[in-house]
Write a structure and sequence with these properties.
Structural class of chain B: mainly alpha
Number of strands of chain A: 2
Order of helices and strands of chain B: HHH
Oligomer: heterodimer
Radius of gyration of chain A: 30 Å
Number of helices of chain B: 3
Shape of chain B: elongated
Number of helices of chain A: 28
Largest interface: A-B, 11 and 14 residues
Distance between the termini of chain B: 55 Å
Strand content of chain A: under 5%
CATH class of chain B: Mainly Alpha
Largest sheet of chain A: 2 strands, antiparallel
C-alpha cells in the first residue's frame, strides 16, 4: 500500500525543520518558522492520507530498522498505523501546525530572542511526539517518550535568562523522569517476560499476555516465579509510572503548573497534543494489556477520578489565566485516565481529541490575551476585553463552553461518555468505579465554575487597568488558529453522539466507535470490551441511565457556570474566593504538594548521599586505585629516561654483565 | 703462529677501551671513535677464529662489518652535525630535550 510507505515522513518532516531551524534558522526570513509550518503542514497532509487509507480498511505494521536481535529479544524501530494511531496523528500534527502559525504572532512579532532555538525545539517536539504515536513497540515508544521529555525541558526553559523558567524546566524534566524510571524498568520487564514488545501483530505482548492468562498458556512466558496475574499487574503498574509522570496525574502532577513559565504556544502544544497526551495515548496503545488486569484498571480509574477532582479545586482560586488552564489540564487528563480505567477505550481517545482542540484553543486564546495585556497574566488586571478583542472572545468562549461540558460543544459529548462508561461499569461490576465516578462528577460543576470565573474576569465587566483599557492588537497569525480551533471546539463532538444514538435510536452516528472498532485483530474496541470483563449495570434501563447521566452532568455544569455568573458578572467583581478563608490558602498553595515533595526530597537526600559515598568509595575506589598505581609508578619509572646517552650505555653494559653473571651461575661456569 | 687466545685478549682489551670511552667521554666525536674501536674488536675476533679453524667465512664477514662501519660513521657524523646545529656543541649530555 503506497500511502503507508510515507508514514515515517510524518515524523521526519518536523525533524528536518528542527535541523533547518537549528543550523540555518538565523539566516531565514522568519527564523525557522516557515520551515516548521511547512513541515507540520506536510505531516498533517500525510496524516490525513493515512487516515483515509485506514478508513479504506488498510492497516500497517512493519519493522523498519532493527538494532539488536539476540536470544529471542528484538529491539527495533517500526511503524504501526491503525485507527487509533491515525486519529492521534491528525490531532498532533494539526495542533503542532496551528501552534507554529500562532508563534509567528506570539514570538516573532513580539521580538523575542532565540527564535531559531525556539523553532528548532518546536520541530523536535512535534517530531518526537509523532514518532511516539507511530511507534510499533514499547521500546521505541520509550525512546520517543524520553525525547518528548527532553524537548519539554528545552522549551519550558526557553527564556533561560530569567530565574523561574530554568527551574520550572528542570522540575518538569526531573518529575517526569522519576515516572519514566519506572517505565524503563517496565520496558525491560516486558522484554524479559514476553521477548517481544510490539503492540500489534502475531507476537504482540498484549496478545501473548492474553494467551498466558488463558488455559495452560502460562508456560510460554517467564513470570519470574509469580503467578501470571500478579506479575502482569506489577509490569502494568511500572509502565503506569511513566504515564502518571507524563500525563501529570496525582502525585506527579506538580511539574505541570510550573511549566506555565514557558512561552504560551509551547504550553498549548504540551497540554493539547504532545507531552501530556503521550501518557494517555500509551495506555490506550497497549490497552490490550491493561484490559487483562482488573486491579490495575481500578487503580487507573481511581487515580484519574481523584486527579480530576483534586486539580479542579485548585483551579478555582488561581489569579493567573494560565494557572487556571494548567489545573484544568490536569483535571481533564484525570477524566481520560478515569475513562481508560473504566473500560472506556473509545471515550478516552474521544476526550483526548476534543480536549486537544479546546485546550489548544484556550491556551492560544490566553496567549492572545497575554499579547494584548503586554505579558501581564493576572486576571484581576484584565476585564472588559470582550469588546476590544471580539475574535479572541468568541473563540475563547467556545473553548470554555467545551471545557465546562455545556451542550452541544465538543467537551460535553466526550466528558459525558467518560462519565457514562464509569457509571454503567461501576453499577455493573465494581463499587470502586462508582467512587471514581462520584469524584469525576463532583469535578464537573467545579470545572464549569472556574472556567466561567476565568472568562468573566478576563473578558467581562469594566477594564480594571489602563492596559486592559487599550490592549495591544493581535494579527492574523493569532486569529487564524483561534478560528480553526474554535470551529473544532464546537463541532468535534459530533463525531460520536452516543447519547443521541441511545435515546433516539438513530443508528450509525457513533463514528468514533466504528472507527476504533476496525483495524488489527485484537487491537479493536470490541475486543477490549470483551477483555475487561466489566459488566454494565443500568438504573431502570439503558435509555434512562443515559438520560440521567446527561441531565445530571449537564445540570451540574450549568449550576457551576451559573454560580460563577452570579458571583463575577458585575462590572467590578469582588474576590469571592476570599470567603473560603483558610481553605483558599491551602488551595493557593496547591495543597502544599510542592512543599511536601521538597520535604520528601530532603528526607531522602541522606540516602542519596550514602549511595553517592558507596558509589564513589566502593565502586569507583578500586578502579581509581588501580589506575593511580599505574600513574604513580609510571611517573616514577620514567625518570630512568634521562636523555643522556652515557647513562643508557652504562645501563646496557650493566645489564649485559648481570645477564652474563646469571647465565654463568646457572650454567655452572664458576 | 700466535695462539688464538692472544688475539682474543687484544680484542677484549680494545672492546673495553671502547666501552670505557663511551661511559666516560662527553664529546660525540670521541663517542664515534669508541664505537669504531668496539666494532674493530669484534672484527679481530672474527678474523682470529677464521684463522684458527681455516674457514674464510669469518674474514669475509669482517669485510662486511668494515663496510657497515663506514656507513655507520657517515650516519653518525650526520647526527653529530645536527647535534651541533641544535645545541651549539657536540656534548651528548646537553641533548636531553626529548626525555619525559
Amino acid at each position: 500500500m503506497a500511502a503507508f510507505d510515507y508514514a515515517p515522513a510524518i515524523a521526519l518532516l518536523p525533524f528536518a525543520s528542527f535541523v533547518i531551524a537549528l543550523f540555518a534558522g538565523r539566516f531565514l526570513p522568519k527564523r525557522g518558522a516557515l520551515a516548521g509550518i511547512l513541515a507540520t503542514a506536510g505531516s498533517l497532509v500525510l496524516s490525513i492520507w493515512m487516515a483515509l487509507s485506514v478508513a479504506a480498511g488498510n492497516t500497517y505494521n512493519e519493522a523498519l530498522y532493527t538494532f539488536v536481535t539476540a536470544q529471542g529479544i528484538n529491539l527495533h524501530l517500526g511503524v504501526l498505523i491503525d485507527p487509533l494511531a491515525a486519529l492521534m496523528l491528525i490531532i498532533v500534527s494539526l495542533v503542532a501546525l496551528l501552534v507554529h502559525v500562532f508563534s509567528l504572532g506570539y514570538m516573532n512579532d513580539e521580538g523575542e530572542p532565540g527564535l531559531p532555538r525556539y523553532y528548532a525545539g518546536l520541530g523536535l517536539f512535534s517530531a518526537s511526539m509523532l514518532g511516539f504515536v507511530i511507534a510499533d513497540n514499547l521500546f521505541m515508544a520509550f525512546m520517543f517518550f524520553e525525547m518528548v521529555g527532553l524537548c519539554s525541558w528545552l522549551l519550558i526553559g526557553h527564556w533561560y535568562r530569567d530565574d523561574a523558567p530554568p527551574s520550572a524546566a528542570k522540575k518538569a524534566f526531573l518529575v517526569t523522569r522519576f515516572g519514566d524510571y519506572f517505565f524503563l524498568v517496565g520496558v525491560v520487564a516486558v522484554l524479559a517476560t514476553f521477548g517481544s514488545a510490539t503492540f500489534a501483530g502475531e507476537e504482540s505482548f498484549p496478545g501473548l499476555a492474553e494467551t498466558a492468562l488463558g488455559e495452560g498458556g502460562a508456560d510460554a512466558v517467564s513470570t519470574f516465579g509469580f503467578a501470571p496475574e500478579t506479575w502482569f499487574a506489577i509490569v502494568g503498574l511500572l509502565i503506569l509510572g511513566g504515564v502518571i509522570g507524563k500525563s501529570a496525574q496525582f502525585p506527579l502532577h506538580t511539574w505541570l503548573p510550573d511549566a506555565m513559565e514557558g512561552p504560551t504556544p509551547v504550553s498549548a502544544l504540551i497540554h493539547a497534543a504532545t507531552m501530556v497526551a503521550a501518557g494517555v495515548y500509551l495506555v490506550a496503545r497497549m490497552y490490550g494489556f491493561y484490559a487483562l488486569l482488573p486491579t490495575v484498571l481500578a487503580i487507573i480509574a481511581f487515580v484519574g477520578g481523584f486527579t480530576a477532582l483534586f486539580a479542579a479545586t485548585m483551579g478555582v482560586v488561581k489569579r493567573e489565566i494560565k494557572q487556571v488552564l494548567a489545573y484544568s489540564t490536569i483535571s481533564q487528563y484525570g477524566y481520560m485516565m478515569l475513562a481508560l480505567g473504566a473500560g472506556g477505550y473509545v471515550a478516552a481517545p474521544f476526550h483526548l481529541m476534543t480536549h486537544a482542540f479546546f485546550k489548544a484553543l484556550l491556551f492560544l486564546g490566553a496567549g492572545a490575551v497575554i499579547i494584548a495585556m503586554h505579558h501581564n497574566e493576572n486576571m484581576w488586571d484584565m476585564g472588559g476585553l470582550k469588546d476590544r478583542m471580539p475574535v479572541t472572545y468568541w473563540t475563547f468562549l467556545a473553548g470554555s463552553l467545551a471545557l465546562a461540558g455545556i451542550f452541544p460543544f465538543a467537551g460535553f459529548w466526550s466528558k459525558d461518555e467518560v462519565l457514562y462508561e464509569a457509571l454503567i461499569h461501576g453499577l455493573g461490576s465494581s463499587p470502586l468505579l462508582l467512587g471514581a465516578y462520584a469524584m469525576g462528577l463532583l469535578a464537573v460543576p467545579i470545572t464549569a465554575f472556574y472556567t466561567f470565573r476565568m472568562v468573566l474576569l478576563t473578558f467581562h465587566g469594566e477594564p480594571r487597568t489602563d492596559t486592559a483599557e487599550n490592549p495591544h492588537g493581535v494579527g492574523w497569525s493569532v486569529k487564524t488558529p483561534l478560528v480553526v480551533l474554535g470551529v473544532l471546539a464546537v463541532t468535534a463532538g459530533f463525531i460520536n453522539m452516543l447519547p443521541v444514538q441511545k435515546l433516539l435510536g438513530i443508528e450509525g452516528i457513533d463514528f468514533l466507535h466504528e472507527w476504533l472498532d476496525h483495524g488489527f485483530e485484537g487491537v479493536t474496541a470490541h475486543h477490549y470490551g470483551d477483555l475487561t470483563g466489566y459488566a454494565s449495570g443500568y438504573i431502570g434501563g439503558e435509555s434512562v441511565t443515559v438520560l440521567l447521566g446527561v441531565v445530571v452532568s449537564l445540570g451540574l455544569a450549568l449550576a457551576g457556570a451559573g454560580l460563577a455568573y452570579a458571583l463575577y458578572s458585575g462590572s467590578d467583581p469582588d474576590a469571592h474566593t476570599d470567603r473560603l478563608g483558610d481553605a483558599k490558602t491551602v488551595l493557593m498553595n496547591n495543597y502544599y504538594q510542592d512543599e511536601y515533595q521538597v520535604w520528601l526530597a530532603d528526607a531522602t537526600a541522606r540516602v542519596a548521599r550514602a549511595a553517592d559515598t558507596f558509589d564513589q568509595g566502593i565502586i569507583d575506589g578500586p578502579v581509581n586505585g588501580v589506575s593511580s598505581v599505574s600513574l604513580v609508578s609510571g611517573s616514577r619509572i620514567k625518570r630512568v629516561q634521562t636523555g643522556i646517552v652515557t647513562n643508557y650505555a652504562a645501563l646496557l653494559s650493566l645489564g649485559l654483565v648481570a645477564l652474563l653473571v646469571v647465565l654463568g651461575l646457572l650454567g655452572g661456569w664458576f | 703462529m700466535v695462539p688464538a687466545q692472544y688475539y682474543l685478549l687484544l680484542s677484549a682489551a680494545m672492546f673495553c677501551i671502547g666501552l670505557f670511552g663511551i661511559l666516560t667521554r662527553k664529546n660525540a666525536l670521541l663517542f664515534l671513535m669508541s664505537v669504531e674501536l668496539m666494532l674493530t674488536a669484534g672484527n679481530i675476533n672474527f678474523v682470529a677464529f677464521s684463522f684458527q679453524y681455516g674457514n674464510l667465512t669469518g674474514q669475509v664477514f669482517s669485510l662486511f662489518t668494515i663496510a657497515l662501519a663506514a656507513a655507520e660513521v657517515a650516519v653518525g657524523i650526520g647526527i653529530i652535525l645536527v647535534l651541533y646545529r641544535n645545541f651549539r656543541g657536540v656534548d651528548v649530555t646537553q641533548a636531553t630535550t626529548m626525555r619525559w
